[in-house]
Each structure stands twice: as structure tokens, then as C-alpha cells.
From TrEMBL:
Broad class of enzyme this protein falls into: hydrolase
SUPFAM superfamilies: beta-lactamase/transpeptidase-like
Record's keyword terms, sorted: Carboxypeptidase, Hydrolase, Protease
Protein name in the entry: D-alanyl-D-alanine carboxypeptidase
Length: 359
């Protein structure tokens, strides 16, 4: 196999003794080897098609203090990939006639302030262009203990952090603030009459067989500011922030999610189209995640592109909308998002090269 198809991305290298392989895909393997060598990758990388992993490798340690090896089925924080999970639940409720993207949120949250609530819609919240002022981060900086307060329900969090004035007209520009997702979580709870976590289980996780996707951090999971020396990086995530970034998942669960949501009739055709239509061109942002053009074998391929960054966890879920490949990367060592995106693109190119060589 010629490695020129992936060498330009800078992720080609020799094998590392800390890497274990399942399957034999030469170009994909070379990209992963290079990531381990050049960037100290510590995590799980997988590529596949139709919801099935065709090649997966794990590298490094899941928990350094306990000398626990990384394994392909480890659960790690997926941070903002949670937004696309949440957006999928919203679209299922749209398909059921319980939610509408362009209705004022006061339809479901009648106690929300009328002057701004009448101008806020799920479409604007899901695409992070609501115009809401972020009252959450200033409150946490003033009182860090808020993150550990068990009494703050979703409704109370909306009142405290997500009911401020609008700082720009909804839809005018992109503003990546967590308060958007606190409201989305509240709307899901109001529409279903269930706590958010239970609604997500019945709407998305259980139907898709995502048995290892949960808002509960695995006991031994750890992420790191530095590996040598190992310095753990913690980031408490209260229940009212789960919709925007609180899930832990595995490569297999995310691979299955991407295929079922983007390729099948799990959602209606209209909802699939809505989920991947760019709402904010400046950031290529759709509903709950970005879209991306990836150059593969001389063609620009459109992909749903979800990324996550929380404490030391970094993640990418990239799915080709032509159904020819999916990549999942989960990492626990605070590698830059730019490097993670480059790694994911290189894996999709290598995956295509391996398939072409085998044809």
C-alpha cells in the first residue's frame, strides 16, 4: 500500500508498542501510528461503515495512577457531541408532533419571560445563535460551588442563568454559550413530562442500542492536563448542563449513532435534512453540531462533524453523508482540537484508500 494518500496530513508513522490493533488496514494503521508517535495520542480511534467498526485501535492508559490500559470499549467524555445527541432527541419529538423548531419557547415554558421568550425558538437555541446573554459562566466565576449544588433543577437553572436580556437579535450571529442548552433541556422535559436523562434514554439511547452512553462518569475514567508528570483535569458537570456536554460514550455507540441517525429512517427525511442543514454559515453550524467538507481522493465530501472538549477529554465524530465512512476518536490527554480534526480527516482519507486498495 502506498502511504502518499495520507502522508500529507502529517499522521503517518511507525508502530508503537502501546498500540493494540483489531483488524488489518494498512493506511489507517499508519495514520494512527503517526498520531501516537507525533502527538502522544492516548485514546481510541475507530473507522467504519454502516454503523460497524472496521478498524479500531487503543493507545496508552485509561487511568494512569491505576495503570489501567486503554481498551476499544472504554467510555470517555464526549463533551459537545452531547449537543448532537440532544438535537436528535428534539427532532424525534418534532417527528412526533410534540415540538416545533420555529415556535416560541413560551409554548412549552409558559413561565419564561414573555418579552424575550416570544423571540426565542428551538432552531435558534440548537444552532447557538439565540442572542441570550451568558449568565452562567459569570455566576460560576463568582461562586464556583454552584457546580456542586444539588438543588438546582433544570427549571431553576433556566431562571438563574438563562433568562437574561438578549444581546443581539436571534439568528444574527453565532455565540457558543451553554445557556442555550439549559433551555433546550427544559423544553425536552416539558414536552415529555420526564426528566431529561429519562427522555433521552427512551428517545435516542435505547432505540439505537447505545447501552454504554450515559451522563454518569465511569468511576475510573480520568482525563489529564499533562501525562508526564500525570496531572488529572476534573470538570464537574451538574445535571442541568448534561444536554450541552455531559455524556460519556464509546466508539461503538457513536459509530452506531451516526449511521442510524444520518443514514436510516430513524428520523424522518425532513428531520434528517433539518439536522444537517447549516444554520450559521460563519461557523458551518447546523443543529447541535457542525458540517465539514473533507477532501477525499480529490473530491470534497460533506460530513456531519461533531467535536467535544471538556477538561482533558477530546473527541471527534465525523460521518460522511455519502455513507462511505465514519470516524470516531476519543482521547483523554487534552490534545488540541485542530490536531484532533486533522487526525480525523486523515483517518477518513486512509479508510477510503484502504477500501480502494481492497476493491
Amino acid at each position: 500500500m502506498m502511504l502518499s494518500a495520507v502522508a500529507g496530513a502529517g499522521f503517518v508513522g511507525l508502530s508503537s508498542g502501546s498500540v493494540r490493533a483489531l483488524g488489518r488496514h494498512e493506511a489507517v494503521g499508519a495514520v494512527i501510528d503517526g498520531m501516537v508517535r507525533d502527538h502522544g495520542f492516548q485514546g481510541v480511534a475507530a473507522v467504519g461503515r454502516d454503523g460497524r467498526i472496521e478498524h479500531v485501535r487503543s493507545a496508552g492508559l485509561w487511568n494512569i495512577a491505576q495503570n489501567m490500559p486503554m481498551e476499544p470499549d472504554r467510555q470517555m467524555g464526549v463533551a459537545s457531541i452531547s449537543k448532537r445527541l440532544t438535537a436528535t432527541a428534539v427532532m424525534r419529538l418534532v417527528d412526533q408532533g410534540l415540538l416545533f423548531l420555529d415556535e416560541p419557547i413560551t409554548r412549552w415554558l409558559p413561565d419564561y419571560r414573555a418579552d424575550t421568550g416570544s423571540r426565542l425558538t428551538l432552531r435558534r437555541l440548537l444552532s447557538n445563535c439565540s442572542g441570550l446573554a451568558d449568565a452562567f459562566m459569570p455566576a460560576v466565576r463568582a461562586a464556583p460551588g454552584l457546580l456542586a449544588e444539588p438543588w438546582i433543577s433544570t427549571g431553576e437553572a433556566i431562571r438563574l442563568f438563562a433568562s437574561g436580556d438578549l444581546i443581539f437579535e436571534p439568528g444574527a450571529r453565532f455565540d457558543y454559550v451553554l445557556v442555550n442548552w439549559v433551555i433546550v433541556q427544559g423544553v425536552i422535559e416539558a414536552a415529555t413530562g420526564r426528566p431529561y436523562a429519562g427522555a433521552m434514554r427512551s428517545l435516542v439511547l435505547e432505540p439505537l442500542g447505545m447501552r454504554h452512553t450515559t451522563p454518569i462518569k465511569p468511576d475510573d475514567a480520568a482525563s489529564y492536563r499533562t501525562v508526564s508528570p500525570p496531572v488529572e483535569w476534573t470538570n464537574p458537570r451538574p445535571p442541568f448542563l448534561v444536554a450541552g456536554g455531559g455524556y460519556y460514550s464509546t466508539a461503538a455507540d457513536l459509530m452506531r449513532f451516526a449511521h442510524r441517525v444520518y443514514d436510516t429512517d430513524f428520523l424522518s427525511r425532513m428531520s434528517r435534512d433539518q439536522l444537517t442543514a447549516i444554520e450559521v454559515k460563519s461557523d458551518n453550524y447546523a443543529l447541535g453540531g457542525r458540517m465539514r467538507k473533507v477532501a477525499i481522493q480529490g473530491v470534497e465530501v460533506e460530513a456531519a462533524w461533531d467535536t467535544g472538549s471538556s477538561s482533558g477529554f477530546r473527541s471527534v465524530l465525523g460521518h460522511r453523508l455519502d455513507r462511505q465512512g465514519t470516524v470516531v476518536i476519543l482521547n483523554n490527554t487534552a490534545i488540541s482540537q485542530r490536531v484532533m480534526d486533522g487526525f480525523a480527516e486523515a483517518l477518513l482519507r486512509a479508510h477510503a484508500a484502504d477500501h480502494a486498495a481492497a476493491a
